[in-house]
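User: My advisor asked me to double-check a structure prediction for Terpene cyclase/mutase family protein before group meeting. I don't want to rely on an old file, so could you generate it fresh from this sequence?
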Amino acid sequence: MFVRRSAAVLAATAVIGTAFAPAALADESPSPSPSLTLPSGLYGSTDPTYDGVWRQSLALLAQHIVDVRPAAKAVDWLTGQQCANGGFAAYRADPAAKCDAKTQIDTNSTGAALQALTALDTDDTRTADATAAAVKWLKSVQNEDGGWGYLPGGASDTNSTSVVIGALEAADTDTEDLRSKDDRTPYDALLGLALPCGEDGGKSGGAFAFQPDKKGKLAANADATAAGVLGSLGEGLVTDPEDDGQSATPPTECAGGDSPTPEQAAANGAAYLVGAVAESGHLESALAGAEDQPDYGNTADTVVALAAAGRPADAGKPLAWLEKNSGSWAAESGPAAYAQLIFAAHATGTDPRDFGGADLVKQLGATGPAAESTAKDGQDTKDDKSKESEESEDDGGVSVWWIVGVGLVGGIGIGFLLSGRNKKQQP
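Assistant: Sure, here is a fresh prediction for Terpene cyclase/mutase family protein from the sequence you gave:
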């Protein structure tokens, strides 16, 4: 989904709460330092400081929806990252050390982990306890306006609020009746971040903003809009394809005026996204200095959002663009990128094992520990492809100009988490 940022700038982000990613920093994937030893249960080979929990959660969730049972140590690594209060930080190098005031627990990492662990639905008591604790923590840090910011107490933003809605819904929490001390629901917060229908002569009407600027003005943001569509519909990172093949009738105009319902806001946001990808088939990066570059992660999020909004036909163009062009980006970006593409394929009923000729499931699996098994064609077979045996393979073969991290502020992008966003979190 949605909060994505270049890992190179996340350290500063964690301190000052921004979502800016300078172009110079966005060109490089974070690599492990010579002294950094990555946990054997972790997906990905780059520095996990700012996206470890996010990319792990997306990887586990993506494997689940394609009937692959992830390695037990991969699940154990994720549950081991949880703090005693139920929240998750982007990454804890020493899980044995207690979380303290300096541990930056965030809603995006916690929401992603909750979605993944809930989906796995293991019989492990530890997993059940982890999900219950995560739900409790997320509820405890709901803002008075009904939404959530990236860090507890931070101003609510569309991306974080949507990630949390999806996580709580996955855990069977009624978010429509989840009220803050001011009697506001998460949907009230999202509606407050949706641009009115007549905004910018109608060009930006229906879009979502990430947050209001210092003057309280809302600016349309495609990344936030993809998140807002899913959040307004109560959907999470994964959206199942339409069972009956029927699509919603696309609205001919922005609905609801200045007071849309959540469903109308979702439809309006979807219409905005259709226009955003109409010409090129993809979204453009919002990062300073990279405006003419495609945004792969948020384009994948757009496909999921359009499918969730009942517009799979409109998702066809960006999906086709991803099938043709996303290989190098995913190979360079790692597990969260593969997961986002699998989510996009799944939402549209596309085979992720033949995505533009690429086997996304195999490519994702190669970035982490060997899976326990895979259920395909009614048979359980041992997955003999491990991270160690395949990490030297380069399916893309081409260097990518940037990486989007996940977690703390966006997932590969943060898709949902560390997405290349050109916005600032207000205090």
